[in-house]
């Protein structure tokens, strides 16, 4: 984990080195000042040597100025190092997430990934800055002050040493218990963010079903769980301050009492006692700062583990060593394919699938809910890998292709259509960044989207709100189909992507496909018989197996499931899944 995180310091290692150097310089100047002050009292004030006072005073001013400048520079470089570290973490996490397969994404919730890239990274950024500045400064200050104290009076310095040992032991116990609670806090953040995300993204459904009270109670529960966990952790951490202050005042009283006796016995000078009291405060304040650093580290340890999980996650899908860089045609072959979403799955999602689809064919896939229609289509574009058997596109195993090349030739319009904030043209050009306006218009005509687009005041420059909230479901589907067509793919997969359009528009889209892109293999997953009855072949899926394969007429004659679906839909009665 540590190695993974340290790799993210690339570009900011210089700042990470300079920061502690300036902190050490600042501490050295601070350690010199009490010695100079003691010299002024013992060799200047008490003997009446004004020249010594002036001379030593100048050195004190110079030391203070150097210390001030070192502190400013340490702050500057520390801020750059920590902010750069956070920047690299977010960038690396985001880039790694882009490589994830669906199997990888299934391991992390969306809310969890957002929390890791925001709250967790911020915690790590703060902890890193405290380690570079406060931790280095406090640790070096503690060592120097302790050394100076023993140099002046070993007897009085032993009081500090005992205090340090006691406080370090207490602090270790506090951090041990606090870390355990903080490890449980951040998953609660995920629950809270998930509650907010679902509520906002589905706000129309919430209001339509008048579920505001339910969502409010759900959020309150998640928020209270987070609150209670933080309270438990903070209660333990809060013990740190009173214990620390009690130790500070006890040390001051003991040093003053013992020091006064030593002065009376002429074993210690007044200026030395003043220096010891200054070093006492330095030591105990250093301990206070170190305790704050360790508390922050205990908080960020859980965040560091969560961030490292994302950074170290490797995609389950990788390119071969010498990938194929060209897809010859749109033919598709399934050979004894078995598939399960998880490695070692006891139950197959797809069982012994055998298919041979010629390039340019139109193939319909129909079946009840949960019959694995989408899972079958996902294997063609290698969104998942088969568990057994092979899927071939253009006569070659999909695992032999460069994934980007393969997916550029297999366009998929998913069940859940997604549009991004931006103009219609910008959304269409997700399919082809270099597409001209004319090509975008032609794709919209094929998808029967041109009519409603041109009815907008701004036409193709109409701004689409986040999630496509200012267009209807059917309009969104047709824009997504047009976007897929702009890829000019060899295989086009429509995963129930015309469910929100009327049957007449559906028929026009299918007719346009037959006439305009005859060389493209078209896979149409649908719930309606009318959407697939004109296909060259139709696949009937049931429980992850192919129950029937043939033309519309052949299936009506020999496949009971297809016949029942057809009759239930044409008669206007019956439930599809039944």
Explained architecture:
This protein has 578 residues and is α/β, with parallel strands linked by helices. The chain has 19 helices and 12 strands. The protein has helices at 2-6, 13-45, 50-99, 102-105, 110-152, 154-201, 203-208, 212-237, 240-264, 270-312, 373-380, 403-409, 424-428, 437-446, 450-455, 473-485, 503-516, 552-558, 560-570, and strands at residues 332-339, 350-357, 362-367, 388-393, 396-397, 410-413, 422-423, 463-464, 491-495, 521-525, 537-542, 545-550. Helix 18 (552-558) crosses helix 19. 37% of the residues are buried.
Number of strands: 12
Largest sheet: 6 strands, mixed
Strand content: 5-15%
Strand order of the largest sheet: 6-9-10-3-11-12
What low-confidence regions span 5 or more consecutive residues with pLDDT below 50? 573-578
Distance between the termini: 52 Å
Compute the average pLDDT.
83
Overall, the morphology is elongated
Number of alpha- plus pi-helical segments: 19
Rg, alpha carbons: 35 Å
- Give the proportion of residues in helices: 55-70%
**Class from secondary-structure proportions:** alpha/beta
């Amino acid at each position: 984990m540590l190695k993974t995180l340290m790799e993210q310091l690339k570009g900011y290692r210089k700042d990470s080195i300079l920061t502690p150097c300036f902190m050490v310089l600042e501490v050295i100047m601070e350690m010199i000042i009490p010695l100079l002050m003691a010299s002024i009292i013992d060799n200047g004030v008490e003997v009446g040597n004004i020249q010594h006072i002036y001379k030593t005073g100048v050195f004190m001013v110079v030391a203070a100025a150097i210390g001030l400048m070192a502190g400013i520079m340490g702050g500057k470089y520390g801020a750059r190092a920590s902010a750069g570290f956070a920047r690299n973490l977010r960038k690396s996490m985001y880039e790694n997430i882009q490589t994830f397969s669906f199997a990888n994404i299934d391991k992390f919730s969306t809310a969890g990934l957002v929390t890791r890239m925001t709250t967790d990274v911020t915690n790590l950024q703060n902890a890193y800055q405290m380690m570079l500045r406060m931790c280095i400064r406090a640790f070096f200050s503690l060592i120097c002050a302790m050394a100076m104290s023993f140099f002046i009076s070993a007897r009085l310095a032993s009081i500090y040493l005992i205090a340090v040992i006691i406080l370090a032991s207490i602090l270790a116990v506090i951090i041990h218990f606090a870390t355990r609670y903080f490890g449980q806090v951040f998953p609660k953040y995920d629950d809270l963010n998930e509650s907010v995300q679902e509520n906002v993204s589905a706000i129309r459904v919430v209001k339509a079903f008048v579920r505001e009270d339910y969502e409010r109670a759900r959020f309150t529960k998640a928020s209270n769980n987070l609150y209670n966990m933080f309270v438990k952790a903070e209660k333990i951490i809060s013990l740190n301050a009173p214990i620390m202050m009690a130790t500070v005042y006890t040390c001051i009283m003991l040093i003053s009492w013992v020091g006064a006796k030593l002065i009376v016995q002429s074993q210690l000078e007044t200026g030395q006692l003043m220096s010891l009291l200054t070093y006492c405060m330095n030591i105990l304040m250093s301990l206070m700062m170190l305790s704050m650093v360790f508390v922050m580290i205990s908080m960020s340890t859980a965040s560091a583990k969560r961030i490292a999980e994302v950074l170290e996650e490797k995609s389950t899908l990788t390119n071969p060593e010498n990938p194929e860089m060209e897809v010859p045609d749109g033919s598709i072959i399934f050979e004894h394919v078995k598939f399960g979403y998880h490695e070692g799955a006891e139950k197959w999602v797809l069982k012994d699938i055998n298919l041979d689809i010629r390039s340019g064919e139109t193939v319909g896939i129909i079946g009840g809910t949960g019959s694995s229609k989408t899972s079958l289509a996902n294997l063609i574009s290698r969104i998942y890998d088969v568990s057994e058997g092979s899927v071939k596109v253009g006569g070659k195993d999909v695992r032999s292709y460069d994934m980007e090349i393969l997916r550029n030739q297999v366009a998929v319009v998913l069940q859940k259509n997604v549009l991004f904030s931006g103009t219609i043209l910008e959304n269409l050009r997700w399919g082809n960044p270099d597409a001209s306006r004319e090509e975008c218009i032609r794709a919209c005509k094929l998808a029967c989207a041109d009519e409603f687009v041109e009815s907008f005041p701004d036409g193709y420059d109409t701004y689409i709100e986040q999630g496509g909230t200012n267009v209807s479901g059917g309009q969104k589907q047709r824009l997504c189909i047009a976007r897929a067509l702009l890829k000019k793919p060899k295989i086009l997969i429509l995963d129930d992507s015309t469910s929100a359009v009327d049957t007449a528009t559906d028929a026009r889209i299918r007719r346009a496909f037959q006439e305009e892109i005859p060389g493209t293999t078209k896979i149409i997953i649908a719930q309606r018989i009318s959407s697939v009855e004109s296909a060259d072949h139709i696949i009937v899926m049931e429980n992850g197996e192919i129950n029937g394969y043939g033309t519309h007429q052949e299936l009506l004659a020999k496949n009971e499931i297809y016949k029942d679906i057809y009759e239930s839909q044409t008669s206007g009665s019956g439930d599809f899944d039944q």
